[in-house]
Amino acid sequence: RLRVARRVEDLSGSSIFRINAKAEKLAGQGRDILRLDAGEPDFDTPKHIIDAAKQALDHGYTRYTPVGGLPSLKDAIRHKFKRDNNLYFDDDEVMHSCGAKQALFNTCMTLLQPMDEIVIPSPHWGTYPSISKIAWARIVNAPTYHEHGFVLRPEVLDECLSDRSRIVVLNTPNNPTGQVWSREALSALGEVLLDYPDVFVVSDDIYEHLRYTGEPYANILNVCPSLKERTVVINGVSKAYAMTGWRVGFAAGPSHLIAEMQQLQGQSTSHTAAVSQKAAQAALDGGLDTVHDMASALSNRAQQVADGLAEIGAIDCHPAQGSFYCLPNFQRVIASLDGVDDDQQLGDWLLEELGIAMVPGSAFNAPGHMRLSFAAGSETLGNALERLQHAFA
Ligand code: PLP
Q1: 154-164: per-residue pLDDT in tens?
Q2: ipTM
Q3: Which residues lie with the beta carbon below 6 Å from any ligand 1 atom?
Q4: Closest atom, ligand 1, to C-alpha of 237
Q5: 3-state DSSP: the chain helix, strand, coil percent, rounded to 5?
Q6: In the chain, is it the N or the C terminus that has fewer CB atoms within a 10 Å radius of its CB?
Q7: Nearest CA, atom 7, ligand 1
Q8: Closest Cα to atom 12, ligand 1: which residue?
Q9: Is pTM, for the whole model, over 0.90?
Q10: Rounded CA gap, 92 and 253, in Å?
Q11: 114: closest CA among 88, 133, 128?
Q12: Confidence at residue 198, expressed as pLDDT on a 0 to 100 scale
């Protein structure tokens, strides 16, 4: 067997890939599989963005760019932070990356020494612990609970922090819970963080624009500006502009940190494709109309899913407030099914018996739950809800 470096052993993601692969196999055999396992919008990239990319190719954007990004893209990123977030960054405080994922990777690899601790509220996106493992950091899970609407309590954060802590990750709207943390909740966390001056905050705002509560968006810097010297805000165009395949994300933070992150990126991917950078610039500069259209369609689906699940007494679910996921609790269903003992087995059972693909909650450190993605048309959602109602109501 090939000997590989320890850092790549045991990187998770397997149960998501397993469900994806199984769903595809069953669909290939002619089964009618309803896919509620997607992690990307089912919308197309808006036309004005595609047109801008075509033009960019015609104008020769086919070469290397600066590692931090084309100056025009960096301007668009700074403008976006000002327009959408009331946050002001200088040119040397922002950089682009190959997706928000690489921005996060750069941040963790730049800040974390082996055995430093990273506090990750759970349930969480699986990539946070995976990157932490690559950085040889120690992962401290800060649990949030269904009963508390999956919002992190300040006393839980306080318990998780110590003089070994280096990073706290915040992700609102959240993947996988679909919950949005209020200004008050963030402010309470900010208060705790003031007592730990060596800890950096990583604010993953990738689902910022996909919200359904009508409340204005806030991240931790909006409620606790004094954290600015030790906060990295991560965002990108993947979700808001239906641009997952273009691979453009960005980070904003203290200039000395961004400079180091650029060094790191300069020795790995250098930058994302010049044409993608121009497309992202067009997205950010083009305003928010298409984003609002998509968010409004997703909002209707969030409601459809919440109503449909509420009719099934055995499944508890907090209606999604943002992102395109919710995380129903299937514990009572699991207890009622013969031969199904946990969410992994339930994932297989739902696929085989009902033809519904959902990702088991264990992939997000949420055993007993399933992640339902409503990045699927409302007909698909309606059919899935009907099958669930028929089976469990
Ligand atoms: N952050 C969260 C919470 C996500 O769910 C995802 C994608 O699933 C990302 C970041 C990555 O975004 P990108 O496609 O820009 O790398």
Answers
A1: 999 999 999 99
A2: 0.99
A3: 39, 99-101, 125, 171, 175, 204, 206, 236, 238, 244, 249
A4: 15
A5: 45, 15, 40
A6: N
A7: 39
A8: 100
A9: yes
A10: 9
A11: 133
A12: 97
